[in-house]
Every structure is written in structure tokens, then in C-alpha cells.
Amino acid sequence: MRGFKSFPDPVEIRLERGVAVVVGPNGSGKSNIADAIVWAAGSLSPTELRAEKADDVLFAGSAGQPAADWCEVELLFDNADGRLGDLEFSEVSILRRLHRGGEGQYLVNRAPVRRTDLVELLSDVGLGSGMHSVIGQGRVEAVLASSPTERRALVEEAAGLGKFKRRRHRAELKLARVAREVERARDVEAEARKRLRPLALQATAAERAEKLRVQIAAAEARVAELDLAELADRLAQAQERKAASALERKRVEGQLESLLLERGGVEEELADAAGKREAATAGLYRLRSAGERVALRTESLGDLAERLRRELEAARTARPRADVEDTLVAARHAARERDRLTEQAAAAAERLRALERSLAEREGIPPAARELSERGHRLALDGLDVDPGYERAVAAALAFRASAVTAASPSEALGLVE
Predict the structure, then answer these.
(1) Could you give the residue ranges of the DSSP H alpha helices within 69-161?
(2) Which of 94, 95, 107, 322 allows an S-S link to 75, with CB 3.0 to 4.6 Å?
(3) What's the DSSP call for residue 28?
(4) What is the pLDDT of residue 328?
(5) pLDDT tens digits along 224-276
(6) Distance (Å, rounded) from C-alpha 292 to C-alpha 286?
(7) Domain for residue 326, yes or no?
(8) How does the average pLDDT of the chain come out, rounded?
(9) Residue 26 falls within a domain, yes or no?
(10) CB half-sphere exposure, 211, CA atoms < 13 A
(11) Has residue 365 got a pLDDT over 80?
């Protein structure tokens, strides 16, 4: 033991077989040894330990040593014969420890146990609280002066019947507690039965709700799956359309590039054609001017020829032969000059018509208009009464004048010809 009452330091006391006597003067702590055994066996009565309160068993201190904060007492039993319950140990250690704050602990072979288990274990050897293994001072006089009932209880305890009475008492207390718990459980059961029907309805509703929730979740999952499949199809279609659009875009871009190149070529051709058109227009203007001059000279030559013809007629009748011959020579010279100019006018008219056709093709004048223009030339010539030998000159002059009024459309050309 250590820190228990008058033993602040660890003390070991060995009690051998047979009778052991502890001898010492008064106040040396002989009774504290018996109190330590009773306290370690589970006693809770301060009176039985000759104390006023539980922590009075702690060493209170002295002049040369402070008070103990905790104490412990360990009882070591020889259990070779197996008297201590069902413990399969040759030695059994029973230890009780107490701190000044009131915290206590019971240990059997250094393993924590309940006080009830400890008291039950020690009752097998007749040691424990309420037993007569330890008889204190004045206890014999109290037994002698006790009543027959008290002496009977003392004999039963000495015979070992006390532990069975205590067990029966604990069993009765336990049965009473169980009966109260059973009664309380019955009340709870009755109350629960009253609430069982609403709860059953609630449980049924909860089960249905759970089933519906599962069905809804499955339906939502199915809808989501279908939506996902539809979205996947739409995505695939969109990707296909995107790929087709990309191909179409490439094709259109290629066509656009080709058109741009072709446009560049056309623009160059248009620029070249515009230059040629301007040159042709200038040439046309020059030819028209030349045609007008030829026409004027042709008219003059016609007038001259007419005048010469009249003079020739007059000379035939009035002048001598020599003058007639001179006049004939002059007439022949004028006729040759007329033929030369007529040929030049016809060639110029032909060139003029070729240039007009080329210009009409470039400007978009329909072939029908050109045909109407030529028909107009012919109709104009057919409607004139021309002297023999002057047809080509008159045709050249009229060709220029008719070409000068070439229409832009077939209907307009017909109106002009008429």
C-alpha cells in the first residue's frame, strides 16, 4: 500500500499461512492495516474505515512530509486452488486507487473492473464489505448483545450464505427494475400501437413516394438519354452539314477565284476592246468624213458630167468637128476621173460597212439592224433614177448617208428605212 492513512511511503506486508500477528504500540498503524484490507475489498462506508468522509483515507501529511494526492492498496492472493471465481490465474491481484478529487478505480490483475464485479469475486473467499472476515474492536461485545435475528444473520454470513442472499437481493432488485422496464415498454408499445396505423399509412405513402421517385428518376434518365441521343444525331447532322458547307465553301471560293481571274481577263479584254473601239470610232469618223468628201466630189463630177453632156449635145449640133473632138477628149478624161473616184468611193463604203459591222458587234447592235440598214441602202438605190455610169458613185454616197442613220433596234431601223 502507498499513501493510505499513516503509510505515505510504499509498504509491503506478507501474510504467510497460519496465524499472523501484528504487534506494535498504540498509534503505530496496526488498525490501519485492517482498514486497508477492508477498503481494498470495496468498502464504501467511512464509519467502517473509522473515517468521516471518503478521502480521509489519504495520508494527511506530517511535519516532514506533504499530504498525498492519491493512495492505493493492492491485495495479492494465492489462487492455486482456484477459489477466486473462474479466474485462471495462480495469483490474483486486486487493487483499488483513489485520488483526492474523488476519482477512484478498481483493477483485477491490472485490468479495470466494476466494484460490483470485485465484490462478487471476493465473496467467494468470504472477504468484502458487510462480511465478518474482519472483526473490529467492540465487535464481539456487539455480537453477544445482539438479538437472535442478528445472531442468525451473523451465523449465515459466517456459513457463506450471505453472498447468496446478496445475489438474491440483487436479482430481486434487477427483476423489479426489469418489471418496471417491461411495464414502461408495454406503455410505449400501447402508445406505439395507437400511432402504428398513421405510421403505417405514412410508411405506405412513403413507399409509394419512393417508388414514384424511382420511376420519375428512371423516366428522367430515359428522357435525358433520348435527348442525348437526339442531340448526338443533331450534332452529327450539324457536323455533316458543316463539312458539306466547308466543301461547298471551298468550291465556291475556287469558283470565285476563277471568276476573279476571269474577271481580270475580261476587264483586260474590255480595256483592250475599249481602246480598239475608240480607235475604230476615230477611223469610222475619218472614213465618214472621207465618204462625205467623196460624195461631194461625186456630186460635183455628176454636175460636171451633166454639164459636159449638155455641152456635148450642143457642140454636136453647133460646133465644128475639131471642137467636138476636144470636147469628147475632155469628156473621156472626166469619165475616167469619175470612174476612179467612184471606185475609191465604193472601196471606202465597203471599208465603212466592215467597220460598222465590227463596231456593231462590239457595241451589241443586232444583226437584224445591220441587215435592215443594208436593205435600206438597196431600197434607196432602187428608188433613184440614176444616169448610166453614175450608179457606183451614187451608191457610195448613199451608203455613207444610210450608215449615218443606223438604228439601235430593229423597229427603229424599219421606221428609218420607211
Answers:
(1) 115-122, 139-144, 148-159
(2) 94
(3) S
(4) 64
(5) 999 899 999 999 999 999 999 899 989 888 888 888 888 888 788 888 878 88
(6) 10
(7) yes
(8) 76
(9) yes
(10) 5
(11) no
Give the pLDDT of residue 318: 62
**Element containing residue 97 per DSSP (H, E):** strand 91-99
Instruction: Specify if 99 maps to a domain.
Output: yes
Contact in structure between 115 and 98 (CB atoms under 8 Å): no
Least confident of 22-31, 58-67, 196-205, 318-327: 318-327
Rounded to whole angstroms, the Cα distance separating 237 from 255 reads 26
- Identify the pLDDT of residue 375: 47
What angle do helix axes 367-382 and 321-363 make, rounded to 10 degrees?
160
Cβ pair 6, 29 in contact under 8 A: yes
What is the span of the domain harbouring residue 381?
267-417
Three cell numbers written together for 308: 459636159
Mark which of 94, 129, 164 sits at the end of a domain. Answer: 129
- N-term to C-term CA, the chain: 159
Domain boundary among 129, 146, 172: 129
Alpha-carbon radius of gyration of the chain: 77
Q: What is the pLDDT of residue 2?
A: 93
Three-state DSSP state, 61: coil
Print burial letters for 327-360: b (CB count within 10 Å at least 16), e (below 16).
beeebeebeeebeebbebbbebbeebbebbeebb
Tell me how many domains the chain contains: 2
User: Taking a C-beta distance cutoff of 8 angstroms, is the pair 372, 407 a contact?
Assistant: yes
| Helix/strand/coil for 43 | coil
> 73 with 21: CB under 8 angstroms?
no
**pLDDT more than 90, % of the chain:** 18
CA angle 186, 190, 196 (to 5 degrees): 130
Say which CATH number the domain at 55 has.
3.40.50.300
> Could you tell me which residues are beta bridge partners of residue 2?
72
With beta carbons less than 8 A apart as the criterion, state whether 183 and 175 touch: no
- Would you say 110 and 76 are in contact if contact means Cβ atoms under 8 Å apart? no
User: What is the spatial distance between Cα 326 and Cα 132, in angstroms, rounded to a whole number?
Assistant: 203
* Assigned C-alpha cell, 163: 453472498
Rounded distance between C-alpha atoms, residue 393 and residue 339, angstroms: 8
Query: Is the residue at 228 inside a domain?
Result: no
Instruction: Count CB atoms within 10 A of the CB of residue 251.
Output: 10
The rounded distance, in Å, linking the Cα atoms of 2 and 10 is 4
395, pLDDT greater than 50? no
DSSP for 54-92 reads GGGGB----SSSPPPSEEEEEEEEE-TT--STT---SEE
